[in-house]
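Render this sequence as a predicted structure.
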Amino acid sequence: MRPHRCLRPARRLRTDGPRIAARRATASQFAAALQTARGREIAARLAAAGRQLGFLTGEVREAAEDLAATVAVLPPHRTPQPHLGQRPAVQTTAPAAPAPASTPAPCR
């Protein structure tokens, strides 16, 4: 039996964060290795972008943890449950058509 949704550990989201950080670091090293003024400028910009990316990643993680903690507080009777009606049996036939309305007799 699976544990209740509130008791399960939060799923880790698949992100490209580590790959982006690695590519940014590699590009920064390459730009610095060019030993030109433009290369140093690009390396400095990439380093600043890396710091901002790290800060924003931390902020998003904190917000996600806060949200997970808030959602996990719901008691089991408050969690949404699907309301499924009775499904008809496979071999069920369509309901019979209503009887035709009788026509009134003409008045004399």
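Summary. Residues 37-71 form the longest helix (35 residues). The CA atoms of residues 35 and 41 lie 10 Å apart.
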